[in-house]
Design brief:
Layout: E1 12-19, E2 22-29, E3 32-36, E4 38-40, H1 53-58, E5 64-67, H2 68-73, H3 77-82, H4 86-89, E6 96-99, H5 102-107, E7 112-114, E8 119-122, E9 129-132, H6 134-144, E10 148-150, H7 162-182, E11 190-195, H8 201-214, E12 218-221, H9 230-240, E13 250-252, H10 258-265, E14 271-273, H11 276-282, E15 285-288, E16 291-294, H12 314-317, H13 321-329, H14 334-359, H15 363-374
Parallel strand pairs: 4-14, 5-6, 6-10, 10-11, 11-12, 12-13, 13-14
Antiparallel strand pairs: 1-2, 2-3, 7-8, 8-9, 15-16
Helix pairs in contact: 6-7, 7-8, 11-14, 13-14, 14-15
Length: 376
């Protein structure tokens, strides 16, 4: 396998237990160890929305995600580097994974021009032009001091024609090789390649083969949860995950609901990120062991019960459903703060339970019980 510049050993992942395709392990990095499967709260602009760093830590999160594109625009990667790097800047000494900006190639398609070399973005903030190439994206992530650097890629919204999906995948593979060549290896740091190819098993297999030939510390599966539906996503994971190196961590990007996480873990995925728990918290939706609740609903107005009796987060341990309902009806910022905290705590609790079930060899039974409790 080809390597990055420098011969320093990168981050590693140890498998501690298996049940079927599911794996429980430990990701070992320069900024601390992370038990897997693990969910990464999204801190796009160097902050998890509505949360202090201490609050994020209190939920049990061990690793967070930040975004190259958004931090490039403000305050700028070089400024963050001058101020001691992203870990110090956002008060997060633990591991940080940085998305490369590839998702914005899709989500900001009206504001960008793509060519074989890279992407020129028109800033959504002030219209100024910014250029991202595989080399520049990798350079920015290095300046941020990202524990895990992601390759720059083109993510395609689905559905799309086979020709479009194939062209985007092959461009992403060329960019992956350039990203790897630009990456500077350091002890406990790593770079992940991103598997693309839509829901086509043959394209996914071709992408995996190209990435494994390049050689990375970990592998991500991108381009899912972008409109294809859960059944197709799971089918794509069934075809793709077994092809990835068993000794490397696997990351499913941008996923998802609790049921998505449970199904993906059963298919061999180790890392996840998604804005869902934080975005839901800001819009009065709470994830619980018995399903999702909307705290704006009038039925909560006089309810003295806690949001979730089995949760010790501040929203549940110190407040009633009636109070949370009142906060959202009164448009008080404390409502989104408390529900965001709760949702992130729930996701971390969910992952702890899944890890324990894998170690104890009872994941299938655990999954059945979880899904039964979530049912309406």
């Amino acid at each position: 396998m080809a390597g990055s510049r420098g011969s320093a050993p990168g981050l590693t992942w140890d498998c501690l237990a298996r049940e079927g395709a599911a794996r429980a392990g430990m990701l070992r990095t320069a900024h601390g160890d992370v038990p897997t499967p693990s969910f990464m709260p999204v801190g796009t602009a160097g902050t998890v929305k509505a949360m202090t760093a201490d609050a994020v830590r209190a939920t049990g999160a061990g690793i967070v995600l930040a975004n190259t594109y958004h931090l490039m625009l403000r305050p700028g990667a070089e400024r963050i580097a001058e101020l001691g790097g992203l870990h110090r800047f956002m008060d997060w000494p633990g591991p940080i994974l940085t998305d490369s900006g590839g998702f914005q190639v899709m989500s900001l398609s009206r504001l960008r021009t793509l060519d074989a070399d890279g992407v020129t973005f028109r800033s959504h903030l002030d219209g100024s032009a910014h250029r991202l190439t595989p080399e520049r994206s990798t350079e920015i992530q290095h300046a941020l001091d990202a524990t895990i650097t992601m390759c720059f890629d083109e993510c395609t919204r689905l559905p799309a024609t086979p020709d479009i999906v194939a062209a985007a995948m092959r461009l992403s593979m060329r960019w992956a090789a350039r990203s790897r060549a630009a990456f500077i290896g350091r002890p406990g740091y790593g770079q992940f390649g991103i598997v693309q190819g839509g829901t086509d098993p043959e394209l996914r297999a071709e992408s995996v083969a190209d990435l494994v030939a390049i050689g990375f510390e970990g592998y991500a599966i991108g381009g899912l949860a972008v409109g294809e539906g859960q059944a197709l996503m799971f089918a794509t994971l069934d075809a793709t995950a077994p092809l990835l190196p068993a000794e490397r961590p696997r990351y499913l990007m941008g996923v998802g609901t609790p049921d998505d996480l449970l199904g993906a873990v059963a298919r061999g995925i180790d890392l996840f990120d998604c804005v869902m728990p934080t975005r839901a918290g800001r819009t009065a939706r709470a994830f619980t062991a018995t399903g999702t609740l909307n705290l704006r609903n009038a039925r909560h107005a006089s309810d003295p019960a806690p949001l979730a009796a089995d949760c010790d987060c501040p929203a549940c341990s110190r407040h009633s459903r009636a109070y949370l309902h009142h906060l959202f009806r009164a448009e008080e910022m404390l409502g989104p703060m408390l529900l965001t905290w709760h949702n992130l705590a729930y996701y971390q609790s969910l992952m702890r339970g899944i890890r324990a079930a894998i170690v104890e060899g009872r994941l299938a039974e655990h999954a059945t019980a979880l899904r039964a409790a979530w049912s309406p």
